[in-house]
Amino acid sequence: KDSHKYLELVRKYVEPLYFGTVSAMTEALPGLFNAIKIIHQSAKFCAEPGPMMDLLTRISRQLALACKRHVSKGGAILAQDPKLVAAKIDDAMALISAYKRAFRHVRSKANQELKTRRDRAFAYSETAVFAALVSLEARLYRVSDVVRTASQFRALAEHPALPNMAPVASAFESLLDSFSSTKYELLDDSEQAFEPDYAAFQDAVATLENELLARIDSAFEKTSETEDALAMLQSLEGLVHRASLKTNLDSKYLVIFHNYGADLGEAAALFESLKHAPPTIRNAPPVAGNIIWARQ
Fold this sequence. Notes:
mainly alpha
């Protein structure tokens, strides 16, 4: 009877983990952990740490399942819009972070309320409580990398400044099809075959990135105007996800501003050499002609 009374206190906060949205789950966390604190401090069946530890790990596992449900909603992950999947993964990661913060906040608050040595310290192991979530976080991070890479390649394939992107885009789609043909669920973090498959995907993407970098370099070499080069760089920066591409684009700023400095130097040298007798428009008044030349 005592156990049932306290578990009913938790039930209304746990229900969103089964049926609720990410927003509803996030909003339920403070109430959930406050209820857990009350149970920890008052329930007779929590005199030993085992029952409460079991409750906390069960809640964590259910939260992990809720995150998987949220990300997978809409069909096979790699068949969905990569940007949508990336946003859902961000939602799930934020929910897990909120769960960890709520646990730590209640642990701190409960331990501050200890009055005697007989009071129960809130000393449940984070490693054990968060085990299912830490494993899922690692998998979500990798799957996020895959979908963001897909979004990157598809966006760059349509960029008007990059030449002959069709072969690179086709090769990437073939690679993604091969990766998505695995017989296991991508978010099944107990599936060990994922890690070698992900490593092989990374190696293949690195090869394609070399081809992509060559096309980016070619596009910049064909752009002589500083303003055009900066505009192209800014349009590409919003599309890239991979670190190697970001590093390459960052290095382009140095090249652009070096070339800009060289252009300024040439203009300054030309001005100095002709400023005393500038070439002016025929029949132009001397002062007006000099001003027109200087502005050019």
